[in-house]
Write a structure and sequence with these properties.
The chain has about 240 residues and is α/β, with parallel strands linked by helices. Helix content is about 35%, strand content about 30%.
Length: about 240
């Protein structure tokens, strides 16, 4: 199981909120990335949390500086709306890109990106919120706006379009640190034929054992690392 640090960034600071709201500053992205890299993190995800809302991604310089000292896979998301955006991020040092909002507006963009850069480079970043007992809806703009797209449909669609990996974040659990949303994971797991990065609500080492029971599921951690509840080795040694 890979352990992946997630750094959500706004105006050059790592931030953290609850359900993607009430954002507060945590620290400098490069310093935090170096800290987790030195703790032997398997991968780092940088997300520009306002990029899609404002139609731009401002992480290029952060990625360039990070890759001078950090030598683990780096995924970048937020505000990706063109092949040029992807090309620029990859040239800045990113290994992979995560696409959410623009893909929900233009589904063929994932296919176009895969055809140009390869499936292993393109991740589908899925943010979902529960609607009723057995239904979840996809959100865009960092959990701010409904898309009207149903989770099970979207999980299958992004795979048909060729994405190489999926980030699945529970909007309902994100930032709460009161347990991960295994209900949403169980809802889609039998439909997923790609590696999946599970995100939102991690707070107990016992959850690591549960995640290890799934095949091809990695753990994304933010708050528990940022607030020093656990180190990377604490999680890896479970």
């Amino acid at each position: 199981m890979r352990v992946i640090a997630r750094l959500d960034i706004k105006n050059e600071f790592v931030i953290k909120g609850i359900n993607f709201e009430g954002l507060r500053k945590i620290g400098e992205p490069i310093e935090l990335a170096k800290k987790y890299y030195n703790q032997k993190i398997d991968e780092i995800i940088f997300i520009d949390c306002v990029a899609s809302l404002y139609g731009r991604n401002q992480l290029f310089d952060i990625i360039k500086k990070s890759t001078e000292e950090i030598f683990c896979p780096i995924t970048v998301g937020g505000g990706i709306r063109s092949l040029k955006d992807i090309e620029k991020l990859l040239k800045s040092g990113a290994d992979k890109v995560a696409i959410n909002s623009f893909a929900t507006e233009n589904q063929e963009f994932i296919k176009e990106a895969v055809n140009n850069f390869g499936g292993s480079t393109i991740l589908a970043n899925i943010e979902a919120k529960k609607v009723n007992k057995k239904k979840w809806e996809i959100y865009k703009f960092y959990g701010r706006e409904k898309t009207g797209i149903e989770l099970n449909f979207w999980v299958q669609k992004v795979q048909e379009l060729g994405c190489g990996e999926i980030i699945l974040t529970s909007v309902d659990k994100e930032g709460l640190q009161d347990g991960m949303d295994f209900e949403i994971l169980d809802e889609v797991i039998d439909k997923i034929k790609r590696p999946i990065i599970f995100s939102g609500g991690f707070c107990k080492l016992e959850e690591v054992k549960r995640i290890k029971n799934y095949s091809c599921v990695s753990l994304s951690v933010a708050s528990s690392l940022h607030y020093n509840n656990f180190s990377v080795s604490d999680i890896k040694n479970v």
